[in-house]
UniProtKB/TrEMBL annotation, chain A:
One GO process term, biological-process aspect: maltose transport
Sorted UniProt keywords: Signal, Sugar transport, Transport
Protein's UniProt name: Sugar transporter
Pfam families from the UniProt entry: SBP_bac_1
MF (Gene Ontology): maltose binding
Top-level taxonomy: Bacteria, Bacillati, Actinomycetota, Actinomycetes, Kitasatosporales
Superkingdom of origin: Bacteria
From TrEMBL, chain B:
Main location: membrane
BP terms from Gene Ontology: transmembrane transport
Pfam family, one: BPD_transp_1
Protein name, entry field: Sugar ABC transporter permease
Keywords: Cell membrane, Membrane, Transmembrane, Transmembrane helix, Transport
Record has Translocase as a keyword: no
Membrane topology, as annotated: Multi-pass membrane protein
Length: 425, 279, 332
C-alpha cells in the first residue's frame, strides 16, 4: 500500500515540477546596451520576396560595419500576418523594424504600436515621392517610411498576338478590347485570363475613374460602391472579364494566373511583372514569348489607373533600439540600397530620381508610366477590416459578373462594408 | 454455408462495394501524392494526368529546401512526442482510478473530462497568447507541449478508461494471489495488456499535436521555435497556391502520420481483439 | 484503434463485463472495496495530475477568455496593454445582431447532416468490413486508414484541388460522364455546393473512425449469442436487431457524442475550404467566432462568441451527459 502511494505521489509530483520548471526559462534577456551598438542585434521583419539575396547580404555587411551591431532579417509569410504583427507589437521584445503593407499602415499607426518617425522624415525624406509617402502619414505625423512600390501591367504572349496578326501593343482601352476580340476570333487561345476577383486591378480602374470607395457621412466612413463612377469601373472590368474563361468567383491566385498563362494558350493577363517568373518556372519555353505593356487608359496620353501596392518600413514603438532602428532605415533607404533594390527586384523606388535603375527590367519599364497616376485603397485605419477575407468587394465583383446590376450588387454588400468600417478600434 | 449460384452473387456485391469504397477513400490521398510528383505543366492540364509518367522531385526539393526545414521537423517531433507521452502517463493514472476504483465524485470527474473535450481551442488562442506572453514564455516549445498535452488529455483518459476496464480483473487478482503487490500486478500484468490500447490512443494525440496551427502561429514567431504546419501553409502565398509544392509538402507532412496509423492501428485492433479473446 | 469513450467501453469491455457480471459481483466488489479502504485517497491522487493539468491549462485560458469577453479588446488595447471593461456590450451586440442566430441555425443543421451521414455510412461500412474476406477487408481498411490519417490541412487543400472549377478532376469526370453542364461548374459559388464539398470532406474524414471501431467492436460479439438467436429461429435481420444492434448501442452512443463535438467544432475544413464564403454564407459558429475575433481583430467580441459556442455545445450534448451521469452509478 505504501509503495503504491509513493509511486502515485512520485509521478504526480514529477508532473507538477515539469510544469513548474517551464515557468523559469522562458524569458529572454536581450538587453539594450546603453552606449554603442556593439553586441546588439537588430531584428527586421520583411515579407517573403521583399529582400533579394544580394541586396540583403550587402546591406547586412554595410550595416554591421557601420554600427557594429548585428542585423537579423526574419522573412515573414503572408498567412495570418495581421495577427502576427498585432501580437508582436504587444510584446516586450518586438521585432525592431517591420515591413508593413502601405494600405495597412494607417491601421497600425492608429493602434499606437508604431514609433513616431517625423524627425527621420525631415532628415532623409525630403525627396520622397509625395504619392508614395501618403500612406505613412497619419494624423499629421510620420509613422513609417516608404520603401518600395509596384503596380500591375499587362503581361502578354507575343506568339499568340502574332498568330492573331496583331503587330503593335494597344495604346488605348478600346484598342486593347479590339485586339482581344481579334485573338478570340483568329486563334484558339483564351484572349485574356482574368478571374472575377482580381480586386486590385478593379481598384486601379476605380482610381482611373476618379472614384472613391468610401465617403464620409457625419464623422463616419461609409461604402461608396453605389457611386456611378464605381459602377463605370466595374463595367470596364466586366468587359475585360467577358474575354476570359476564368472563374468569376476566384482571385488571380487560385489557380495562379501565371501558371495558366504558362500553358501558352492565353493571350494576356494583368499582373505584377515578377509573375512572369512564375510562368517561366512552370514552362521554360514560354520565356521568349513574354512581353509587357502598360495597361492602356481611355486615351493614349494617360495610362489606366493602377493600384500602387507597396511596403513601408515602420519601427515598433516597443523596440528598445529606436536609434539603431533609425540607423537601419537611413541605410536601407539610402540612394545606394534603395536604388539597388529597385534594380534587383524591379520595384518602383521611393523617389523619382532613382527610377533610372529600372531600365534593365522590361516589366518595370512598362509599369513606371502608370505609377504617376496610381493610387491606393482608402487610407483610413478602418479600411484594413474591409479587406479581411471574405472581402465584400470581391463579393460585389462576382455578383456583377454573374449578372446583377452594379447598383444592386453594391446594395447587397453595403451593410457588411459599413459594419466593418464602423468597428471601433 | 454451402450454397452455390446465389452465394457467388452474395459474395460479389460486398467485394464490389468494398472496391468502390476503397477508391473513394484512397483517391484523394493518391491524388495528393500524384500531384506532388507531376511537373507543373501536367498539374494544370485541361485533361488531368492520372499517372505521373515523367515524375519529378522538383516540388519535394522545393519543399525541403525551405528555411529551417529540419529545425521545424525536430520541433514538431519533439512537441508531438512529448505531449503525447505526457498525456499518456497522466491519463493512465486517471483512467485506472476511473475504471477500477469506486469513490465519491467519480461520475463528476468523468463528465468533467467529457466537457473538457469540448473546449474550442481555435477561438481561445488570444486568451492563451496573453497568458503565455505575460508569463514570458513566448518562442518556447514548453507551452506548446503542455497545451497540446491538455488538448488531447480528456480524450486519452476516456479512451484508456475503456481499455483498462477491458482487462479482466481476474488477471490482476490472480497475480496478486501469486504474491504480487497491486503495483506489481499492474506493471507485470495489466500494462502489457494495455500496450495496444496505449498505442491506439496515442494516434489521436499524434494527429492533433502534429496538425495544430493557430496557436503556434502567434505564440512562436521565432522560426527556430516553429513547427511544420506553419511550413505547410507557407506554400500558399498571397499570389497563389503553388499546387505542386503544396501537395509535396502535404505529402511529406502526412507520411509520418500515415505510417504511424497503418502500423499502430492494425496492432491496436488485433491487440484489442486478442485481449478480448483471452478474457 | 478502438475508441472507447464513455460507457460504451465498447465491445471488448462490455463483453467482459457481461461475463463477469453474470455471477453478481457483489462479493468480489465488496472484497475490493475492503482492500482499498485504507487508501481512500488513492483514486484522488491518481486523478490529481490530470485534474491539475486540466484546471491550469484549460481552466485558466477559459477564465481569461471569459474575462476578455467583457472587454473592448482590439489591436490598440492589445498592443498598449490596456484593459477596457465594457460590461456585457459584446454579448449584447452578438445576441441582438441577426448574424449570430443565423449562424447558430446553420451550424446546427450542418452538424446534424454531417453526424447522421457519418454515423449511418460509418456503421454500414463497419458492418461491411465484418462480412468481407480477409484480403478485401485489409484493402478497404487500408483505404479507410489513409483517409483517416490525412492531416486536415492537407486534406482540405486536396479537396479544393479536386473540386477546382478549371482544372479539377471532379468536373472533368462529370463532363466525361456526359454531364456537360458540369464541365465548368463552380463548386464554391453557392452556399449549397460549398457545403456539399465541405460535407463530403468531413464525412470522408470521419467515417473511418466510426467504421473501423465498429468493426473492431463486432469482432468481440460472442458467437454464442448468434447461435442462440439462430436456435430461436432468428433470420439475418432479426439477429441483427436482437444481437448486433443492442451490443453496439453503447458504442454508437458514445461515438455519436464524439462526432457531434468534432463536427460542430470543425474549423479548418470549413475555413480553409472557402473562408466561410460565398458572402459569409458558409460560416459555422467556430468560423464566425474566428472571423469576427481573430480575423477582424475584435478579440473581445471573439471571446464572447466562443463562450456562447461552448454553451451551445453543452446544450447539444446535455442529454448524453445526463445519461452518463445516471448510468455511471450502476457501473463497476
Amino acid at each position: 500500500m505504501k509503495r503504491k502511494l509513493i509511486a502515485a505521489i512520485g509521478i504526480a509530483g514529477m508532473m507538477v515540477s515539469v510544469a513548474a520548471c517551464g515557468g523559469d526559462d522562458g524569458g529572454s534577456d536581450k538587453k539594450a546596451g546603453a552606449d554603442g551598438y556593439k553586441g546588439q542585434t537588430l531584428t527586421v521583419w520583411a515579407m517573403d520576396g521583399s529582400t533579394p539575396p544580394t541586396w540583403t547580404k550587402d546591406l547586412k555587411a554595410a550595416f554591421e560595419k557601420k554600427t557594429g551591431a548585428k542585423l537579423k532579417f526574419e522573412t515573414q509569410k503572408w498567412d495570418g500576418i495581421q495577427q502576427k504583427i498585432t501580437t508582436a507589437l504587444s510584446e516586450s521584445t518586438p521585432p525592431d523594424v517591420i515591413e508593413v503593407g502601405n494600405t495597412q499602415t494607417p491601421a497600425y499607426a492608429a493602434t499606437g504600436g508604431l514609433a513616431d518617425l517625423t524627425d527621420l522624415k525631415s532628415e532623409i525624406g525630403a525627396d520622397w515621392t509625395e504619392a508614395l509617402n501618403k500612406s505613412s502619414v497619419y494624423d499629421g505625423k510620420q509613422y513609417a517610411a516608404p520603401w518600395y512600390f509596384a503596380n500591375r501591367v499587362v503581361v502578354y504572349n507575343k506568339k499568340v498576338w502574332a498568330d492573331a496578326g496583331i503587330k503593335d501593343t494597344p495604346k488605348t482601352r478600346d484598342e486593347f478590347f479590339k485586339d482581344l476580340d481579334t485573338i478570340g476570333k483568329k486563334t484558339k487561345a483564351e484572349p485574356i485570363y482574368l478571374p472575377g476577383q482580381n480586386w486590385y486591378f478593379f481598384d486601379g480602374l476605380t482610381i482611373g475613374q476618379g472614384a472613391d470607395l468610401v465617403k464620409k457621412e457625419g464623422d463616419k466612413y461609409v461604402s461608396n460602391l453605389a457611386d456611378p463612377k464605381v459602377a463605370a469601373a466595374m463595367e470596364t472590368y466586366k468587359k475585360y472579364q467577358s474575354y476570359s474563361k476564368a472563374p468569376k468567383d476566384k482571385d488571380e491566385a487560385t489557380p495562379q494566373q501565371a501558371e495558366v498563362f504558362a500553358k501558352g494558350n492565353v493571350g494576356a493577363f494583368i499582373g505584377m511583372g515578377w509573375e512572369a517568373g512564375t510562368a517561366i518556372a512552370a514552362n521554360k519555353k514560354i520565356e521568349k514569348d513574354i512581353g509587357y505593356f502598360t495597361i492602356p487608359g481611355e486615351t493614349a496620353d494617360k495610362p489606366e489607373g493602377v493600384f500602387l501596392g507597396g511596403s513601408n518600413f515602420a519601427v515598433a514603438a516597443g523596440s528598445k533600439k529606436q536609434e539603431l532602428a533609425k540607423e537601419f532605415l537611413k541605410m536601407a533607404l539610402s540612394d545606394k540600397f534603395e536604388g539597388a533594390l529597385a534594380k534587383e527586384n524591379g520595384v518602383i523606388p521611393n523617389k523619382e530620381s532613382l527610377q533610372s535603375n529600372l531600365s534593365a527590367n522590361p516589366a518595370a519599364v512598362a509599369a513606371a508610366p502608370a505609377a504617376a497616376g496610381g493610387g491606393t485603397t482608402p487610407l483610413i485605419p478602418e479600411w484594413a477590416a474591409v479587406e479581411n477575407a471574405p472581402n465584400p468587394i470581391k463579393t460585389y465583383m462576382t455578383a456583377v459578373l454573374n449578372g446583377k446590376s452594379p447598383a444592386d450588387a453594391a446594395k447587397q454588400v453595403e451593410s457588411e462594408i459599413n459594419k466593418r468600417l464602423s468597428q471601433t478600434s | 454455408m454451402k450454397r452455390t449460384a446465389s452465394s457467388a452473387i452474395r459474395r460479389l456485391w460486398p467485394n464490389a462495394t468494398a472496391i468502390v469504397l476503397f477508391v473513394v477513400f484512397a483517391f484523394p490521398v493518391y491524388w495528393m501524392f500524384a500531384t506532388a510528383f507531376k511537373p507543373t505543366g501536367d498539374i494544370i492540364a485541361e485533361d488531368p494526368v492520372f499517372f505521373p509518367t515523367d515524375a519529378t522531385f522538383e516540388h519535394f526539393k522545393k519543399a525541403v529546401d525551405a528555411d529551417h526545414f529540419w529545425t521545424l521537423v525536430g520541433n514538431s517531433v519533439t512537441v508531438t512526442v512529448l505531449s503525447v507521452l505526457l498525456s499518456l502517463v497522466i491519463a493512465l493514472l486517471a483512467s485506472f482510478a476511473l475504471a477500477r476504483m469506486r469513490f465519491r465524485g467519480r461520475r463528476g470527474f468523468i463528465v468533467t473530462f467529457m466537457i473538457a473535450q469540448m473546449a474550442p481551442w481555435e477561438v481561445m488562442v488570444i486568451a492563451i497568447y496573453m497568458i503565455v506572453r505575460d508569463s514570458e514564455m513566448l518562442n518556447s516549445l514548453v507551452p506548446l507541449t503542455i497545451f497540446y498535452m491538455v488538448m488531447v488529455l480528456p480524450f486519452t483518459i476516456l479512451t484508456l478508461r475503456g481499455y483498462v476496464a477491458a482487462v479482466p480483473k481476474e488477471l490482476e487478482e490472480s497475480a496478486m494471489v501469486d504474491g504480487c503487490t497491486r503495483t506489481q500486478a499492474f506493471i507485470k500484468v495489466i500494462f502489457p495488456l494495455l500496450a495496444p490500447g496505449l498505442m491506439a490512443t496515442s494516434l489521436f494525440g499524434f494527429i492533433t499535436a502534429w496538425n495544430e496551427f493557430p496557436m503556434v502561429l502567434i505564440l512562436n514567431k521565432d522560426i527556430e521555435a516553429q513547427t511544420l504546419p506553419l511550413w505547410l501553409s507557407s506554400f500558399q502565398t498571397t499570389f497563389g497556391d503553388d499546387w505542386g509544392a503544396t501537395m509535396a509538402a502535404a505529402s511529406l507532412f502526412a507520411v509520418p502520420i500515415l505510417i504511424l496509423f497503418v502500423f499502430l492501428q492494425r496492432k491496436a485492433v488485433s491487440g484489442l481483439v486478442a485481449g478480448a479473446v483471452k478474457g | 484503434m478502438s475508441v472507447q469513450t464513455e460507457r460504451a467501453d465498447t465491445a471488448a469491455a462490455a463483453g467482459i463485463r457481461k461475463s463477469d457480471a453474470s455471477p453478481p459481483g457483489v462479493g468480489r466488489d465488496g472484497e475490493n472495496r475492503g482492500k482499498s479502504r485504507g487508501g481512500a485517497a488513492v483514486p484522488y491522487l491518481l486523478l490529481l495530475p490530470a485534474l491539475a493539468a486540466t484546471a491550469v491549462l484549460l481552466g485558466w485560458p477559459l477564465v481569461k477568455n471569459g474575462m476578455l469577453s467583457f472587454q473592448n479588446l482590439n489591436p490598440r488595447q492589445l498592443i498598449l496593454h490596456l484593459t477596457e471593461w465594457n460590461g456585457i456590450d459584446n454579448y449584447k451586440e452578438v445576441l441582438t445582431g441577426s448574424d449570430f442566430w443565423k449562424v447558430v441555425g446553420r451550424s446546427l443543421v450542418f452538424t446534424a447532416v454531417n453526424v447522421v451521414l457519418t454515423m449511418l455510412l460509418g456503421t454500414l461500412i463497419g458492418l461491411l468490413l465484418a462480412r468481407l474476406g480477409k484480403r478485401m477487408r485489409l484493402t478497404l481498411m487500408l483505404g479507410l486508414v489513409l483517409a483517416w490519417a490525412m492531416p486536415v490541412v492537407a486534406a482540405t487543400t486536396v479537396y479544393q484541388w479536386l473540386f477546382a472549377q478549371r482544372f479539377g478532376v471532379v468536373n472533368w469526370v462529370l463532363d466525361k460522364l456526359g454531364w456537360h453542364s458540369m464541365a465548368d461548374y463552380n463548386w464554391f459559388g453557392s452556399q449549397l455546393s460549398t457545403f456539399s464539398v465541405v460535407t463530403l470532406l468531413i464525412v470522408w474524414g470521419s467515417i473511418p473512425f466510426v467504421a473501423i471501431n465498429l468493426y473492431a467492436a463486432t469482432t468481440t460479439i460472442p458467437k454464442e449469442l448468434y447461435e442462440a438467436a439462430a436456435l430461436d429461429g432468428a433470420g439475418a435481420w432479426q439477429s441483427f436487431t436482437s444481437v448486433t444492434f443492442p451490443f453496439l448501442r453503447p458504442f454508437l452512443w458514445s461515438t455519436t457524442f464524439l462526432e457531434v463535438i468534432w463536427i460542430f467544432k470543425a474549423f479548418t475544413q470549413v475555413f480553409a475550404m472557402n473562408a466561410g464564403g460565398p458572402d459569409r454564407l458558409t460560416e459555422t459558429l467556430p468560423v464566425y467566432a474566428f472571423v469576427e475575433g481573430v480575423g477582424n481583430q475584435h478579440f473581445g467580441m471573439g471571446a464572447a462568441i466562443s463562450f456562447l459556442t461552448i454553451l451551445i455545445l453543452l446544450a447539444l450534448t446535455a442529454y448524453y451527459l445526463r445519461t452518463v451521469l445516471k448510468q455511471e452509478e450502476d457501473e463497476l
